[in-house]
Design goal:
heterodimer, A: mainly alpha, about 0% strand, B: Alpha-Beta Plaits, 2 domains, six-stranded mixed sheet, five-stranded antiparallel sheet, about 25% helix, transport (chain B)
Chain lengths: ~220, ~300
């Protein structure tokens, strides 16, 4: 059995060199530039930055899962097993989204005003940034789950996969009970109340959801077709 | 040590629901280490599906496959649409196959050289010709010395020298106990060498008996070893006849395409065999021309 490391390195190199990561990253940066300004309440801005990570994560999964021509995927699949090959692909996409989320959280934490929404209560900056980081990870995990369930091997034709991915990303952000919605509401209500939340329950929920989605997608690599 | 790759009652169908037709059904197959197996069949009969199952790229819908060793696969048409140089891609694949990066880099250079594509090592994959891309696909499979090698029309698109090199590589793999399965549209490909040939007919395998196309030319190798020592089995299984003109002396008739492998095996065996002469024999008229490698060599009739 091959170790996962060379697979992750291969997938990361594929993603990086394909330059297909540019559009989602640029779109994300534009989205932040429009919605986040210096001196705004920290938790509101962190919630905004975290929410936008979700569709970006789903997009990264789609890029990673469709980056390799099928014949090249077969070569890797024979060497490492298709399940591990796909696992590496999904983990690479999640890693890229998480990295983007971390960078955005740090930037937003630095430029924001560490106060509540009405600027009356001061908030501790590091715990606030930590809460934003957890929310960003929750969104990266859920976005990875959405992406994994709406691309190869589950959905193959782009005509169905892309609308399904977009719909899935929107639903994951707005449906009651979604860990992403819970994490972001925690930040928003915390901002209004002047307290820093710890959205750990959503993190557990998002982790479990992502693990289940990844398991389903990997299991289907050798079964569909 | 390698185990046998075992297929038991293997079936595969695509699509959901009971209406989907079976591409393969009830396939039982044993592939022993050190064997070469050819799979034949018309287009669309399920050859590629069988190879995907053997390579582990695909899982059977029913039945089971056990004992798969370290596997490598060469597809028919390898796409150049990868954002790497040829060597860069091979180093990635080599480490996925379990080599260290340094080993992978060495093996990449070695295999590109053997296949006559050394000058393309630093060329971007997207700029490679179809033939050179295929050489990269062959190199990625061979560089980690896989225990199971699955070749789906791997020869198509290769030039003559690379085709011969791939045949040699296949024989080397089987000589050291590897299992090789291949599909090729050319009936002369490795003709006479496979231990078994199967045709995919109506979703199942049928053993094909009798030899395929005749060989064009043979090489006669005369070697000397210690009296009473048997020649290595890896060498004799590639020969069409073994004569014993004198004590400790053997005259091996080998298909021309496999002479290098036989010689390499004989020379690397412990204790090594002494090569007395290597000559050509044309299968058509039986005339033997000999190039003497030793003053002791006798003129043969």
């Amino acid at each position: 059995m091959t170790a996962l490391r060379p697979l992750l390195r291969y997938q990361a190199a594929l993603l990086l060199r394909s330059q297909r990561w540019l559009p989602p990253v640029i779109l994300y940066a534009v989205f932040l530039a429009v919605g986040v300004q210096t001196g705004q309440p920290i938790l509101d801005s962190l919630g905004y930055a975290a929410a936008a990570v979700l569709p970006v994560a789903a997009w990264f999964v789609r890029i990673c899962a469709t980056n390799e021509p099928p014949a090249a995927r077969s070569c890797v699949g024979a060497a490492a097993g298709p399940v591990r090959a796909h696992l590496a692909c999904l983990l690479t996409a999640f890693g890229a989204a998480a990295l983007l989320g971390v960078v955005a959280t740090v930037v937003v934490t630095v430029i924001s005003d560490p106060t509540s929404t009405n600027h009356q209560t001061r908030l501790p900056i590091l715990p606030a940034g930590g809460a934003g980081l957890v929310a960003a990870l929750v969104c990266a995990l859920l976005g990875t789950a959405v992406g994994a369930l709406t691309t190869w091997p589950l959905l193959r034709s782009p005509g169905r996969a892309v609308p399904a991915m977009l719909l899935g990303a929107v639903l994951a952000l707005v449906v009651t009970g979604s860990p992403a919605r819970a994490a972001i509401s925690d930040l928003v209500t915390g901002s209004q109340a002047g307290t820093v939340p710890a959205p750990l329950l959503p993190l557990i929920g998002a982790g479990a959801t992502a693990a289940a989605a990844i398991a389903v997608a990997c299991a289907l690599t050798t079964r569909r077709g | 040590m390698n185990r046998e790759l075992l297929l038991e009652g293997v079936g595969r169908r695509y699509g959901l629901g009971r209406a989907a037709p079976w591409v393969l059904r009830g396939v039982d197959l044993t592939l022993a280490p050190g064997t070469l197996t050819r799979v034949e069949g018309a287009n669309g009969t399920g050859k590629s599906t069988l190879l995907c199952l053997l390579a582990g790229i695909d899982a059977p819908t029913e039945g089971r496959i056990t004992g798969r060793p370290r596997t490598a696969y060469v597809p028919e048409r390898f796409p150049a649409a990868l954002p790497f140089t040829a060597a860069g891609y091979l180093i990635h694949l080599g480490s996925i196959h379990g080599l260290s990066r340094a080993e992978a880099a060495r093996a990449a250079v070695e295999w590109l050289e053997r296949l006559g594509a050394a000058e393309y090592a630093r060329t971007a994959m997207s700029e490679l010709s179809k033939g050179t891309s295929q050489k990269v696909a062959v190199a990625q499979a061979l560089l980690a010395e896989p225990e199971l090698l699955v070749l789906d029309e791997a020869w198509s698109g290769l030039d003559r020298a690379a085709r011969a090199e791939l045949e040699r590589a296949v024989l080397e793999r089987t000589a050291v106990g590897g299992t090789v399965v291949f599909v090729d549209h050319d009936p002369r490909r490795l003709a006479g060498v496979p231990d078994a040939t199967y045709a995919v007919v109506d979703g199942n395998l049928r053993a094909v008996t009798g030899s395929s196309a005749p060989r064009d030319s043979y090489v006669v190798v005369e070697v000397e070893g210690s009296a009473g020592v048997e020649p290595p089995a890896e060498a004799t299984r590639l020969t069409v006849s073994v004569e014993e003109p004198g004590p400790g002396r053997l005259r091996l008739t080998v298909p021309e395409t496999h002479s290098d492998t036989v010689l390499r095996t004989l020379l690397t065996t412990r204790p090594p065999w002494h090569v007395i002469s290597v000559g050509e024999e044309s299968a058509a008229n039986g005339v033997l021309t000999s190039r003497s490698a030793d003053t002791d060599a006798e003129v043969r009739s």
